[in-house]
Write a structure and sequence with these properties.
Length: 259
């Protein structure tokens, strides 16, 4: 584990298909290996996102979810199997990573993210990927990211639609997630669409797209593909299918990101 993954032969081989891409290269792969990503929510978005982030060799992962694995999760939450039923998602996700690549450093939290503990949970992260299932947590995470100057990739999915957007509200000219949704959703009872239904593969698309966008953010300044695309919300329509992109302007009266 202490060997530099880029000089260790087995690691070189593991990431060879990244390194050979001019858009990533050795420098890009080295940046991924040194990155620390916090995943909030290990469900329909978090599961496939984690698979591709771990596959990309992201060296440090913090995995957060207060839920347990339920049979109805298996339709889309791809890291879990029947053996995980009833187990905490954070613990089961850590087990998945350990089996997949023991060289990755994993920290877990099985508590709920709140405005009180969010800052501590995201401290030191290069990126937070939020794929959780409720607005109260999303807004707490967003506010903490702005305060800590940590970029946020926010991803959501329901029925046949997904949304993935990158935010850097700590920058003077960039919006935050709160600029996008406003203040109306801080209450805990505004939980979204747990009972609404969702095509499992739709969660997979949104989750893997989030992993792709995460790599763009992490490689900014390190490799040609690095382009965070701040303030752009990509809307994935699984029925058409189609992809369109909205620009989220900074709200000058936003209480998350405006001074
Ligand atoms: Zn804002």
């Amino acid at each position: 584990m202490s060997l530099s993954p880029i000089t260790d032969r087995a690691r070189l081989e593991r990431f060879a298909r990244h390194i050979v891409l001019p858009e990533i290269g050795g420098a890009g792969q080295a940046a991924l290996v040194q990155a620390h990503v916090v995943l909030v929510g290990l469900g329909g978005i978090g599961s496939p996102a984690l698979q591709y982030l771990a596959g990309a060799g992201i060296g440090r992962l913090t995995l957060i979810d207060d839920d347990r694995v339920d049979a109805s999760n298996l339709q889309r939450q791809t890291i879990y199997t029947e053996r995980d039923l009833g187990h905490g998602k954070a613990v089961a996700a850590k087990r998945w990573v350990s089996n997949f690549d023991a060289a990755l450093e994993v920290t877990i939290s099985d508590g709920r993210v709140t405005a009180v503990n969010a800052a501590e949970l995201i401290a030191g992260a290069d990126l937070v990927l939020d794929g959780c299932d409720n607005f109260a947590t999303r807004l707490a995470v967003s506010d903490a990211c702005v305060a800590a100057r940590v970029p946020l990739l926010s991803a959501a999915v329901g029925r046949f639609q997904g949304q993935v957007g990158a935010f850097a509200g700590h920058l003077p000219d960039q919006s935050c997630y709160r600029c996008y949704v406003g203040d109306a959703f801080d209450a805990d009872d505004c939980d979204t669409c747990a009972e609404d239904g969702m095509l499992g593969a739709m969660a997979g698309w949104a989750g893997t797209f989030a992993a792709l966008q995460a790599i763009r953010v992490l490689l900014a300044g390190h490799a040609a593909i690095g382009d965070p695309q701040w303030g752009r919300m990509h809307v994935l329509d699984g029925l058409a299918p189609s992809l369109r992109t909205l620009r989220i302007a900074k709200d000058p009266s936003c209480r998350g990101c405006s001074p």
